[in-house]
Design a protein that fits this description.
six-stranded mixed beta sheet, Rhopdopsin 7-helix transmembrane proteins, alpha+beta, 13 helices, 66% helix
Length: 397
Amino acid sequence: MLDTVTLRVSFGVVALTMLMLFYLVTFRSTRSAYCAWWCAALSLFLAGSAAYLLDGTDLQGIFNPLGNALLVGGTASVWAGTRAVTGQRVRSIVLGVPVVLTLVASALDDPTTNVWSGAPVFLSMMTLMLALSSVELWRAAPRGVELRLRERTYAPILRAMAVMAGMLAVFYAGRTIAFVAVGQDGLLFEAVFGTEVTTLVTTVMLATVSFSMTSLSHVDDTLDLRARATHDGLTGLLNRTEFLRLAATKWRSVQHGQVRGSVVLADLDHFKHINDQYGHAAGDYALQTFAAACRGVVRSTDLVGRYGGEEFVLFLDGARPEHARLVASKINERLRSTLVPDGMSLPTVSYGVACADAGRGLDETIELADAALYEAKTLGRDRVVLAGTGVRDREAG
Protein backbone atom coordinates (compact mmCIF):
# COMPACT_ATOMS: atom_id res chain seq x y z
CA MET A 1 0.00 0.00 0.00
CA LEU A 2 1.24 3.50 -0.76
CA ASP A 3 2.41 5.60 2.19
CA THR A 4 0.65 8.79 3.28
CA VAL A 5 3.29 11.15 1.89
CA THR A 6 3.19 9.55 -1.56
CA LEU A 7 -0.61 9.72 -1.65
CA ARG A 8 -0.60 13.37 -0.62
CA VAL A 9 1.96 14.22 -3.28
CA SER A 10 -0.17 12.36 -5.84
CA PHE A 11 -3.24 14.24 -4.64
CA GLY A 12 -1.36 17.52 -5.01
CA VAL A 13 -0.29 16.63 -8.54
CA VAL A 14 -3.87 15.75 -9.49
CA ALA A 15 -5.21 18.96 -7.91
CA LEU A 16 -2.58 21.08 -9.68
CA THR A 17 -3.28 19.39 -13.03
CA MET A 18 -7.03 19.84 -12.63
CA LEU A 19 -6.54 23.48 -11.62
CA MET A 20 -4.37 24.29 -14.64
CA LEU A 21 -6.64 22.49 -17.10
CA PHE A 22 -9.83 23.90 -15.60
CA TYR A 23 -8.47 27.44 -15.50
CA LEU A 24 -6.98 27.45 -18.98
CA VAL A 25 -9.69 25.48 -20.78
CA THR A 26 -12.89 26.28 -18.89
CA PHE A 27 -12.69 29.36 -16.68
CA ARG A 28 -10.92 31.60 -19.19
CA SER A 29 -13.60 30.93 -21.80
CA THR A 30 -16.62 31.49 -19.53
CA ARG A 31 -15.51 33.66 -16.58
CA SER A 32 -18.54 32.30 -14.75
CA ALA A 33 -18.82 32.66 -10.98
CA TYR A 34 -19.13 28.93 -10.32
CA CYS A 35 -15.98 28.26 -12.36
CA ALA A 36 -14.13 30.91 -10.34
CA TRP A 37 -15.22 29.27 -7.07
CA TRP A 38 -14.11 25.85 -8.29
CA CYS A 39 -10.71 27.27 -9.21
CA ALA A 40 -10.52 28.68 -5.67
CA ALA A 41 -11.52 25.31 -4.23
CA LEU A 42 -8.84 23.45 -6.21
CA SER A 43 -6.23 26.01 -5.16
CA LEU A 44 -7.15 25.65 -1.48
CA PHE A 45 -7.18 21.84 -1.67
CA LEU A 46 -3.74 21.96 -3.27
CA ALA A 47 -2.38 24.35 -0.64
CA GLY A 48 -3.90 22.33 2.22
CA SER A 49 -2.40 19.10 0.95
CA ALA A 50 1.00 20.81 0.60
CA ALA A 51 0.76 22.09 4.19
CA TYR A 52 0.30 18.53 5.50
CA LEU A 53 3.62 17.53 3.92
CA LEU A 54 5.32 19.43 6.74
CA ASP A 55 3.82 17.15 9.40
CA GLY A 56 6.64 15.61 11.40
CA THR A 57 8.88 18.65 10.96
CA ASP A 58 9.55 21.65 13.20
CA LEU A 59 6.93 23.57 11.24
CA GLN A 60 4.09 21.13 11.99
CA GLY A 61 2.68 23.37 14.73
CA ILE A 62 2.00 26.08 12.14
CA PHE A 63 1.19 24.18 8.98
CA ASN A 64 -0.99 21.40 10.40
CA PRO A 65 -3.72 23.82 11.61
CA LEU A 66 -3.22 25.82 8.41
CA GLY A 67 -3.76 22.68 6.31
CA ASN A 68 -7.02 21.93 8.14
CA ALA A 69 -8.24 25.48 7.62
CA LEU A 70 -7.30 25.47 3.93
CA LEU A 71 -9.20 22.23 3.27
CA VAL A 72 -12.29 23.56 5.04
CA GLY A 73 -11.91 26.74 2.95
CA GLY A 74 -11.84 24.53 -0.14
CA THR A 75 -15.12 22.82 0.74
CA ALA A 76 -16.62 26.21 1.64
CA SER A 77 -15.64 27.37 -1.87
CA VAL A 78 -17.37 24.29 -3.30
CA TRP A 79 -20.54 25.33 -1.46
CA ALA A 80 -20.23 28.90 -2.75
CA GLY A 81 -19.78 27.50 -6.26
CA THR A 82 -22.94 25.41 -6.01
CA ARG A 83 -24.90 28.52 -5.02
CA ALA A 84 -23.34 30.46 -7.90
CA VAL A 85 -24.79 27.94 -10.36
CA THR A 86 -28.24 29.39 -9.63
CA GLY A 87 -27.03 32.98 -9.31
CA GLN A 88 -27.00 33.07 -5.50
CA ARG A 89 -24.21 34.62 -3.45
CA VAL A 90 -22.52 33.78 -0.17
CA ARG A 91 -21.22 36.49 2.13
CA SER A 92 -17.51 36.35 2.88
CA ILE A 93 -18.15 36.28 6.61
CA VAL A 94 -20.29 33.15 6.22
CA LEU A 95 -17.47 31.41 4.35
CA GLY A 96 -14.91 32.60 6.87
CA VAL A 97 -16.66 31.28 9.99
CA PRO A 98 -15.94 27.53 9.45
CA VAL A 99 -12.37 28.34 8.38
CA VAL A 100 -11.68 30.41 11.50
CA LEU A 101 -13.33 27.86 13.81
CA THR A 102 -11.17 25.09 12.34
CA LEU A 103 -8.00 27.15 12.57
CA VAL A 104 -8.61 28.12 16.21
CA ALA A 105 -9.61 24.58 17.27
CA SER A 106 -6.52 23.12 15.60
CA ALA A 107 -4.18 25.74 17.04
CA LEU A 108 -5.44 25.06 20.59
CA ASP A 109 -5.09 21.27 20.31
CA ASP A 110 -1.29 20.95 20.64
CA PRO A 111 -0.52 20.92 16.89
CA THR A 112 3.25 20.61 17.43
CA THR A 113 2.83 16.97 18.53
CA ASN A 114 -0.72 16.10 17.42
CA VAL A 115 -1.16 15.63 13.68
CA TRP A 116 -4.90 15.32 14.30
CA SER A 117 -5.16 18.66 16.05
CA GLY A 118 -8.72 20.00 16.12
CA ALA A 119 -9.93 16.93 14.23
CA PRO A 120 -13.52 16.86 15.60
CA VAL A 121 -14.10 20.46 14.51
CA PHE A 122 -12.22 20.00 11.23
CA LEU A 123 -14.14 16.85 10.29
CA SER A 124 -17.47 18.39 11.35
CA MET A 125 -16.88 21.48 9.21
CA MET A 126 -15.93 19.33 6.21
CA THR A 127 -19.14 17.32 6.69
CA LEU A 128 -21.26 20.45 7.02
CA MET A 129 -19.85 22.19 3.93
CA LEU A 130 -20.18 19.06 1.79
CA ALA A 131 -23.73 18.44 3.00
CA LEU A 132 -24.70 22.05 2.22
CA SER A 133 -23.18 21.66 -1.24
CA SER A 134 -25.18 18.50 -1.86
CA VAL A 135 -28.44 20.14 -0.74
CA GLU A 136 -27.76 23.24 -2.85
CA LEU A 137 -27.01 21.19 -5.97
CA TRP A 138 -30.12 19.04 -5.50
CA ARG A 139 -32.29 22.13 -5.07
CA ALA A 140 -30.69 23.74 -8.12
CA ALA A 141 -31.56 20.78 -10.37
CA PRO A 142 -34.86 21.79 -12.05
CA ARG A 143 -37.80 19.43 -12.16
CA GLY A 144 -40.96 19.16 -14.22
CA VAL A 145 -41.69 18.56 -17.86
CA GLU A 146 -41.99 22.10 -19.20
CA LEU A 147 -38.35 23.13 -18.84
CA ARG A 148 -36.19 25.26 -21.06
CA LEU A 149 -33.33 23.60 -22.91
CA ARG A 150 -30.70 24.97 -20.50
CA GLU A 151 -32.60 23.62 -17.48
CA ARG A 152 -33.16 20.21 -19.06
CA THR A 153 -29.44 19.93 -19.83
CA TYR A 154 -28.36 21.16 -16.41
CA ALA A 155 -30.60 18.82 -14.43
CA PRO A 156 -28.77 15.44 -14.79
CA ILE A 157 -25.35 17.04 -14.24
CA LEU A 158 -26.47 18.85 -11.10
CA ARG A 159 -28.18 15.77 -9.69
CA ALA A 160 -25.09 13.63 -10.27
CA MET A 161 -22.94 16.23 -8.52
CA ALA A 162 -25.45 16.43 -5.66
CA VAL A 163 -25.29 12.66 -5.14
CA MET A 164 -21.50 12.78 -5.28
CA ALA A 165 -21.25 15.57 -2.71
CA GLY A 166 -23.82 13.79 -0.54
CA MET A 167 -21.82 10.57 -0.58
CA LEU A 168 -18.66 12.43 0.40
CA ALA A 169 -20.59 14.22 3.18
CA VAL A 170 -21.75 10.83 4.50
CA PHE A 171 -18.16 9.58 4.34
CA TYR A 172 -16.93 12.55 6.37
CA ALA A 173 -19.82 12.16 8.82
CA GLY A 174 -18.77 8.55 9.37
CA ARG A 175 -15.18 9.71 9.71
CA THR A 176 -16.20 12.22 12.38
CA ILE A 177 -18.20 9.65 14.35
CA ALA A 178 -15.43 7.06 14.12
CA PHE A 179 -12.78 9.53 15.26
CA VAL A 180 -14.82 10.64 18.28
CA ALA A 181 -15.81 7.06 19.17
CA VAL A 182 -12.55 5.15 18.71
CA GLY A 183 -9.88 7.77 17.97
CA GLN A 184 -7.33 7.91 15.16
CA ASP A 185 -5.60 4.74 16.34
CA GLY A 186 -8.74 2.62 16.33
CA LEU A 187 -8.92 -0.21 13.81
CA LEU A 188 -12.24 1.00 12.32
CA PHE A 189 -10.97 4.52 11.77
CA GLU A 190 -7.63 3.43 10.36
CA ALA A 191 -9.08 0.82 7.98
CA VAL A 192 -12.14 2.71 6.69
CA PHE A 193 -11.58 6.40 7.38
CA GLY A 194 -7.81 6.78 7.54
CA THR A 195 -5.72 9.32 5.67
CA GLU A 196 -4.87 6.96 2.81
CA VAL A 197 -8.50 6.04 2.09
CA THR A 198 -9.63 9.66 2.41
CA THR A 199 -6.92 10.89 0.03
CA LEU A 200 -7.94 8.35 -2.61
CA VAL A 201 -11.65 9.18 -2.21
CA THR A 202 -10.98 12.92 -2.40
CA THR A 203 -8.77 12.52 -5.49
CA VAL A 204 -11.55 10.71 -7.34
CA MET A 205 -14.02 13.39 -6.21
CA LEU A 206 -11.81 16.20 -7.49
CA ALA A 207 -11.45 14.63 -10.93
CA THR A 208 -15.16 13.82 -11.24
CA VAL A 209 -16.41 17.23 -10.08
CA SER A 210 -13.91 19.00 -12.37
CA PHE A 211 -15.29 17.13 -15.37
CA SER A 212 -18.86 17.85 -14.21
CA MET A 213 -18.08 21.56 -13.87
CA THR A 214 -16.53 21.48 -17.32
CA SER A 215 -19.73 19.89 -18.65
CA LEU A 216 -21.82 22.69 -17.12
CA SER A 217 -19.54 25.26 -18.68
CA HIS A 218 -19.77 23.49 -22.06
CA VAL A 219 -23.58 23.59 -21.81
CA ASP A 220 -23.42 27.34 -21.13
CA ASP A 221 -21.10 27.94 -24.09
CA THR A 222 -23.19 25.82 -26.45
CA LEU A 223 -26.50 27.40 -25.47
CA ASP A 224 -25.07 30.91 -25.53
CA LEU A 225 -23.79 30.34 -29.07
CA ARG A 226 -27.18 28.95 -30.03
CA ALA A 227 -28.92 31.99 -28.53
CA ARG A 228 -26.64 34.34 -30.47
CA ALA A 229 -27.44 32.48 -33.66
CA THR A 230 -31.21 32.52 -33.13
CA HIS A 231 -31.94 35.73 -31.21
CA ASP A 232 -31.58 39.42 -31.92
CA GLY A 233 -28.70 40.83 -29.91
CA LEU A 234 -30.39 44.13 -29.04
CA THR A 235 -33.93 43.08 -28.08
CA GLY A 236 -33.45 39.44 -27.13
CA LEU A 237 -36.33 38.43 -29.41
CA LEU A 238 -36.08 35.80 -32.13
CA ASN A 239 -34.19 37.01 -35.16
CA ARG A 240 -35.90 36.94 -38.54
CA THR A 241 -34.38 33.63 -39.66
CA GLU A 242 -35.30 31.77 -36.47
CA PHE A 243 -38.81 33.26 -36.37
CA LEU A 244 -39.50 32.09 -39.91
CA ARG A 245 -38.10 28.63 -39.13
CA LEU A 246 -40.28 28.18 -36.03
CA ALA A 247 -43.31 29.72 -37.72
CA ALA A 248 -42.90 27.33 -40.66
CA THR A 249 -43.04 24.43 -38.19
CA LYS A 250 -46.32 25.72 -36.78
CA TRP A 251 -47.58 26.34 -40.31
CA ARG A 252 -47.42 22.65 -41.11
CA SER A 253 -50.12 22.18 -38.50
CA VAL A 254 -52.09 25.00 -40.04
CA GLN A 255 -51.97 23.27 -43.39
CA HIS A 256 -53.48 20.17 -41.80
CA GLY A 257 -56.22 22.24 -40.23
CA GLN A 258 -55.06 21.51 -36.68
CA VAL A 259 -54.00 24.99 -35.57
CA ARG A 260 -55.06 28.47 -36.45
CA GLY A 261 -53.55 31.78 -35.54
CA SER A 262 -52.72 35.28 -36.65
CA VAL A 263 -49.63 36.94 -38.02
CA VAL A 264 -49.02 40.48 -36.78
CA LEU A 265 -46.51 42.91 -38.26
CA ALA A 266 -45.75 45.93 -36.07
CA ASP A 267 -43.78 49.02 -36.98
CA LEU A 268 -42.69 51.84 -34.66
CA ASP A 269 -44.04 55.11 -36.06
CA HIS A 270 -41.60 57.91 -36.93
CA PHE A 271 -38.72 55.89 -35.53
CA LYS A 272 -36.13 57.91 -37.48
CA HIS A 273 -37.34 60.99 -35.62
CA ILE A 274 -36.42 59.31 -32.30
CA ASN A 275 -32.88 58.63 -33.53
CA ASP A 276 -32.48 62.11 -34.99
CA GLN A 277 -33.85 64.00 -32.00
CA TYR A 278 -32.63 61.93 -29.04
CA GLY A 279 -29.78 59.85 -30.48
CA HIS A 280 -29.32 56.19 -31.34
CA ALA A 281 -29.21 55.17 -27.68
CA ALA A 282 -32.79 56.42 -27.33
CA GLY A 283 -33.74 54.49 -30.46
CA ASP A 284 -32.26 51.32 -28.97
CA TYR A 285 -34.19 51.98 -25.77
CA ALA A 286 -37.45 52.32 -27.73
CA LEU A 287 -36.82 49.01 -29.51
CA GLN A 288 -35.98 47.24 -26.25
CA THR A 289 -39.03 48.71 -24.54
CA PHE A 290 -41.35 47.51 -27.30
CA ALA A 291 -39.73 44.05 -27.18
CA ALA A 292 -40.25 43.91 -23.40
CA ALA A 293 -43.88 44.92 -23.84
CA CYS A 294 -44.39 42.10 -26.34
CA ARG A 295 -42.80 39.54 -24.02
CA GLY A 296 -45.03 40.71 -21.20
CA VAL A 297 -48.22 40.21 -23.20
CA VAL A 298 -47.80 37.16 -25.46
CA ARG A 299 -48.14 33.56 -24.29
CA SER A 300 -45.41 30.93 -24.21
CA THR A 301 -46.92 29.28 -27.31
CA ASP A 302 -46.68 32.50 -29.36
CA LEU A 303 -43.67 33.62 -31.39
CA VAL A 304 -42.19 37.12 -31.36
CA GLY A 305 -39.30 38.26 -33.51
CA ARG A 306 -37.52 41.34 -34.78
CA TYR A 307 -38.26 41.37 -38.47
CA GLY A 308 -35.82 44.12 -39.34
CA GLY A 309 -34.98 47.65 -38.21
CA GLU A 310 -37.95 48.97 -36.25
CA GLU A 311 -40.32 46.28 -37.59
CA PHE A 312 -41.45 43.28 -35.50
CA VAL A 313 -43.43 40.15 -36.29
CA LEU A 314 -45.66 38.01 -34.08
CA PHE A 315 -47.40 34.70 -34.62
CA LEU A 316 -50.24 34.37 -32.13
CA ASP A 317 -50.96 30.66 -31.95
CA GLY A 318 -54.66 29.82 -32.22
CA ALA A 319 -55.69 33.49 -32.05
CA ARG A 320 -58.33 35.00 -34.30
CA PRO A 321 -57.73 38.53 -35.71
CA GLU A 322 -60.00 40.05 -33.06
CA HIS A 323 -57.77 38.62 -30.35
CA ALA A 324 -54.70 39.90 -32.19
CA ARG A 325 -56.19 43.40 -32.03
CA LEU A 326 -56.62 42.95 -28.27
CA VAL A 327 -52.98 41.85 -27.94
CA ALA A 328 -51.86 44.98 -29.80
CA SER A 329 -53.96 47.08 -27.41
CA LYS A 330 -52.31 45.46 -24.37
CA ILE A 331 -48.85 46.01 -25.82
CA ASN A 332 -49.66 49.68 -26.29
CA GLU A 333 -50.93 49.90 -22.72
CA ARG A 334 -47.59 48.59 -21.47
CA LEU A 335 -45.74 51.08 -23.63
CA ARG A 336 -47.75 53.99 -22.25
CA SER A 337 -47.10 52.86 -18.68
CA THR A 338 -43.33 52.59 -19.19
CA LEU A 339 -41.17 55.22 -17.55
CA VAL A 340 -38.93 56.99 -20.07
CA PRO A 341 -35.95 59.34 -19.70
CA ASP A 342 -36.81 63.02 -19.24
CA GLY A 343 -37.75 64.75 -22.45
CA MET A 344 -38.13 61.57 -24.49
CA SER A 345 -41.42 60.11 -25.68
CA LEU A 346 -41.89 56.59 -27.00
CA PRO A 347 -43.19 56.26 -30.56
CA THR A 348 -46.66 55.02 -31.36
CA VAL A 349 -47.04 51.72 -33.22
CA SER A 350 -48.87 50.64 -36.36
CA TYR A 351 -50.06 47.05 -36.78
CA GLY A 352 -51.08 44.87 -39.70
CA VAL A 353 -52.87 41.57 -38.94
CA ALA A 354 -53.51 38.59 -41.21
CA CYS A 355 -55.29 35.37 -40.31
CA ALA A 356 -53.50 32.06 -40.79
CA ASP A 357 -55.45 29.96 -43.23
CA ALA A 358 -54.96 26.43 -44.51
CA GLY A 359 -55.32 27.74 -48.04
CA ARG A 360 -52.35 30.16 -47.74
CA GLY A 361 -48.67 29.72 -47.13
CA LEU A 362 -46.68 31.52 -44.46
CA ASP A 363 -45.01 33.90 -46.91
CA GLU A 364 -48.37 34.87 -48.44
CA THR A 365 -49.86 35.50 -44.98
CA ILE A 366 -46.93 37.71 -44.00
CA GLU A 367 -47.40 39.64 -47.24
CA LEU A 368 -51.06 40.20 -46.35
CA ALA A 369 -50.06 41.44 -42.88
CA ASP A 370 -47.47 43.70 -44.49
CA ALA A 371 -50.09 45.14 -46.83
CA ALA A 372 -52.38 45.76 -43.86
CA LEU A 373 -49.49 47.45 -42.03
CA TYR A 374 -48.86 49.67 -45.06
CA GLU A 375 -52.53 50.64 -45.03
CA ALA A 376 -52.29 51.47 -41.32
CA LYS A 377 -49.36 53.77 -42.11
CA THR A 378 -51.22 55.38 -45.00
CA LEU A 379 -54.29 56.05 -42.86
CA GLY A 380 -52.25 58.03 -40.33
CA ARG A 381 -50.39 55.44 -38.23
CA ASP A 382 -51.06 54.48 -34.60
CA ARG A 383 -53.76 51.94 -35.49
CA VAL A 384 -54.48 48.28 -36.27
CA VAL A 385 -55.64 47.14 -39.72
CA LEU A 386 -56.99 43.61 -40.19
CA ALA A 387 -56.17 42.30 -43.66
CA GLY A 388 -59.18 41.54 -45.86
CA THR A 389 -61.79 42.58 -43.29
CA GLY A 390 -62.05 46.31 -43.78
CA VAL A 391 -61.59 46.80 -40.03
CA ARG A 392 -59.33 49.73 -39.24
CA ASP A 393 -58.98 50.81 -35.63
CA ARG A 394 -57.98 54.45 -35.19
CA GLU A 395 -55.79 53.35 -32.31
CA ALA A 396 -54.64 49.98 -31.06
CA GLY A 397 -55.45 50.82 -27.47
